[in-house]
Every structure is written in C-alpha cells, then in structure tokens.
Amino acid sequence: MAAIPYFKAEKIADGSWMIKNAFVDQSYAICYLIEGRDFALLIDSIIGLGNLKAFCGTLTDKPVKLVNTHAHSDHVGGNFHFDECWIHHRDIGFFQTCIGIRKEQLFEMAKQTSLPEYRDQIEPDDNFADWNPMKVFPLYDGDVFDLGDRTIEVVEVGGHTAGSIVLIDHKTRIAYTGDACNGNTLLEFSNSLPIISYMRNLLHLKEHQQEFDQMYGGHETFDASLVDEAIETVAKVIAGTDDRCERTGILGGPVLYAAEKVMDGYERVDGKRFNMSYIPSKVLSGGETRQVIRAE
Q1: If you average pLDDT over every residue of the chain, what do you get?
Q2: Are 81 and 51 within 8 A, CB to CB?
Q3: How many Å apart are CA 168 and CA 278, to the nearest integer?
Q4: Distance CA 279, CA 192 (A)
Q5: 3-class DSSP state for residue 244?
Q6: Predicted confidence band of residue 263 (pLDDT cuts 50, 70, 90)
Q7: Residue 88 to residue 75: CA distance in whole angstroms
Q8: Which residues contact 290 (CB under 8 A, 6 or more apart)?
Q9: Which of 51, 71, 89, 190 could be a cystine partner for 138, CB 3.0 to 4.6 Å?
Q10: Gyration radius of the chain over CA positions
C-alpha cells in the first residue's frame, strides 16, 4: 500500500519551498521552508495533519527552527511535532489557548477531509501529535534569523492578530506574510487590532517594500504592490468612504468588508486584490493597542 502523501512541496526559489497538505481536497493553509548554510527555517506549520518535521527532513538535512507568523490554529497546528517555536510576543498568550487538542481529534479531522482514496488508510499514528505545552521564544520587530548565508528579518504587522509578523528573506527578495496582508484579511477577531493601528503597521511594512518583490502568504501569493492596495483600502475604512459590504463573518456574526465582493466568492467587484473584514466599532478604538494584563 502506497504511503499517504500528507504533504507536497514546490520549490519557489533557491533553497526555498512552499509546502501544502496533499491528501485533502483543499489545503488548509501554506507553510514555507528556507534552507541556509547553518540551519533551515520553517515558517508556519499549518493545521497539524501529518508529521511536518519528518517531511522537512526529506527536503533538507539541516536542523530546522520553527517560526510562526501568528497564532491561529491553521498556522500553528504542526508545531507540536517540534520541541520549540518562535512567535511574536503579543501572540504567545493566544498561542497557549491552542493547547489541549488531542491527536484523536486531528485523526478524525483527517478522516473527514481526506480525498476518498486515502480515507481508509489513515491511522492514528505518529503523523498526529497532541497539542501539549512546548517551549516558546518571543520575537520582536527587527529581529533577524541568521541562517549563515542568508538573513530573514522580522517585521511587525499587527492587525489580523496583535502579534502578526512578516518575514523578509533578503537573499531571494521574498516576504513571507502569513495572514498579515492578503485578499481576505480578517480583522474581525477578538484579538485583532483596531483598524487605525493596522494602518500604522501597514505603513511600517511600506517602509520595507523596496526589500521584496513577492509576498508569499499563508493562503495565497501576490506581488509587492498589494501593500499599496492595502493602504489605500484601509484609508477609506478610516475615512468612512469604503463600500461597507455587509457579510457574515467567519465566526458567524455580521461584519463589513471594505470593498464590495462578488456574491459567491471573496474577490472584489472592482478587480483589485486586497480586501478586509472588520467590525465597525473597532475602526478607531475597541481593541487593545497595548498588552493589558488583568485578573482573569
């Protein structure tokens, strides 16, 4: 019986791979492996279906360090095959809320979402790991991963989550953007920042725009000009001149989209690419711009 292809990899640049789940009908998210002289850096770990650490070993013989662009479960699910990870300090607390999912739950998810030809082959083996506590190191804006022959710079772009980051590979001029800036940027979560704070962080990303040509995100890819579309769109939200397209959000509640969307998809009617969901009360306020530690 052939092995289940939990992952597939596509080379996107020198020593750089895009990795997706291969045994499901539609991949949950995308992660990336960058190989340097001294070690390899895995950017995100997607949903946790399959042993991603073992798969990375088929692409590189270098030790692998893991960094997360933010703490949502479809980007950290594979973390628990590793001993440690790096994540922006503002998302560490949220990451802890992921702990407690058992491997049996992931096994059932795999059975339910796999392509029919693999469904009966999936077993609750070491391709699944309990989401247990692990060692987490904090990241800050401007930190650098020095792989020996290439450097990956951390740029803070909080909005989607308070601790969302972009990682710029200066060797290949690729920015790995997670969910910080894409065609369906969700700012409707309880841990999303106010829109005006997101704008400040987009302008910070704009300062680095000349350092990259492509944006490889957690679900799709764009060229660097998407940053300009994002700034233009968010400015309209702040000014109150956006389309205010009413939709049901990912959590089931009402949200607004900045630009009118086609009825059966998330693409913009006007053909531009960046779009975002948001809660009207969180445009100028309504979210924490600082970390606040309370009794609960």
Answers
A1: 94
A2: yes
A3: 27
A4: 10
A5: coil
A6: confident
A7: 13
A8: none
A9: 89
A10: 19
Please check whether residue 89 is in contact with residue 81, taking contact to mean a CB–CB distance below 8 angstroms: no
Q: 3-class SS at 65?
A: strand
The token pair at 170 is: 């200066």
Paired tokens of 181: 């800036």
Structure tokens at 162: 């308070």
Residue 290 has pLDDT above 50, yes or no: yes
The whole-number pLDDT of residue 1 equals 45
Are 261 and 168 in contact by the 8 Å Cβ rule? The answer is: no
The answer to whether the CB of 275 falls within 8 A of the CB of 261 is: yes
Residue 296 has pLDDT above 90, yes or no: no
> What pTM value is reported for the model?
0.95
Average pLDDT over residues 116-142: 95
Among candidate residues 155, 120, 180, 160, the one with its CA nearest the CA of residue 250: 160
Instruction: Report strand pairing: 185-187 vs 276-278.
Output: parallel
Contact 32, 17 (CB under 8 A): yes
CA dist 169 and 212 (Å) reads: 8
* Interval 267-279: pLDDT, tens: 899 999 999 999 9
3-class DSSP assignment, residue 177: strand
How far apart CA 193 and CA 146 sit, in angstroms, is: 30
Q: Each residue of 189-235: pLDDT tens digit?
A: 999 999 999 999 999 999 999 999 999 999 999 999 999 999 999 99
CA terminus-to-terminus distance, the chain: 52
- Helix (H/G/I), strand (E/B), else coil: 172: coil
Amino acid in position 232: E
**Domains of the chain (ranges, CATH numbers):** 7-240 (3.60.15.10)
